[in-house]
Design brief:
It contains seven helices and eight strands. By secondary structure, the protein is an alpha+beta fold. The protein has one domain. A hairpin with a 2-residue loop joins strand 6 and strand 7. Helix 1 crosses helix 5. The longest helix is centred in the N-terminal third of the chain and has 24 residues. The chain is globular. The N and C termini lie far apart (about 60 Å).
């Protein structure tokens, strides 16, 4: 290794250590959750399709899997959400959508509220994972995270797709489950938050006891997923209504 290369490498490590140092110090001055409480504006209920095309839709409250048990990230602080179940002739799927206005919640905390963590911490077992898949080819959805789960009671498998976008840009979960966030990335995000406000965010989870791809070309499912795509493409569309 040349002297110049060694110097560049040393400089790179110094920059990394300095960044992590700033991030660690920033934790003492940075408030993880804004001084607001979770609310429900009702806009998402209006935007997500209701009953139709042979499907019966019912709204349900959030269950224990939607929040972490850890005190540091227990409050979701969303400004709107909808949790809607669709049933048709023995088939069903559910759609959970949450929205955060610009600056309301750090992206790193929103990214913690995925099935990878919330469901597993509540006793669910992930049996299969796929990353950045093309859900419903040809519909233009952002890359989805796909998981297969077994509930705590050991009943039928649950199939899951989920997404997170900030101002319409997909969050990069990488090629690993989010049960344990990357320490370096987490600290980098803490440091960045002190200089930059996170944009509007939309999280969507779709789950079903049936493989989700089996609903492709079903008019009712397609209608719901078109709305999901619109929400993920532009988070600002929600608060502009």
């Amino acid at each position: 290794m040349s002297v110049a290369s060694a110097r560049w490498r040393r400089a790179g490590w110094i920059a990394i250590v300095a960044t992590l140092g700033v991030a660690c110090v920033a934790q003492f001055f940075h408030t993880d959750a804004p001084s607001v409480v979770a609310s429900k504006s009702g806009q998402l209920e209006k935007m997500l399709p209701g009953s139709g095309d042979g499907w019966q839709a019912t709204d349900e409250p959030l269950g224990p899997t939607e929040s972490l048990r850890t005190a540091t990230a227990q409050i979701l602080n969303y400004d709107d959400f909808v949790n809607r179940r669709y049933r048709s002739n023995g088939r069903e799927f559910s759609v959970y959508v949450a929205h955060w206005a610009r600056g309301r919640m750090p992206t790193r905390l929103v990214a913690l509220h995925t099935p990878d963590r919330c469901w597993i911490e509540n006793g669910w077992k992930c049996t299969q994972s796929a990353f950045n898949i093309t859900a419903l080819p040809g519909r233009g959805l952002p890359p989805a995270q796909e998981r297969w789960f077994i509930p705590p009671n050991g009943s039928d498998r649950i199939y899951v797709w989920f997404w997170l976008t900030t101002d319409g840009i997909p969050y990069d979960f990488g090629n690993r489950t989010n049960s344990v966030p990357s320490p370096l990335r987490y600290l980098w995000q803490i440091a960045r938050e002190n200089f930059e406000v996170d944009g509007e965010q939309v999280f969507v989870r779709v789950n079903s006891p049936q493989p989700l791809a089996s609903f492709a070309n079903d008019p009712g499912f397609e209608r719901v997923m078109l709305t999901v795509k619109a929400l993920l493409d532009s988070a600002r569309r929600v608060s502009s209504l």
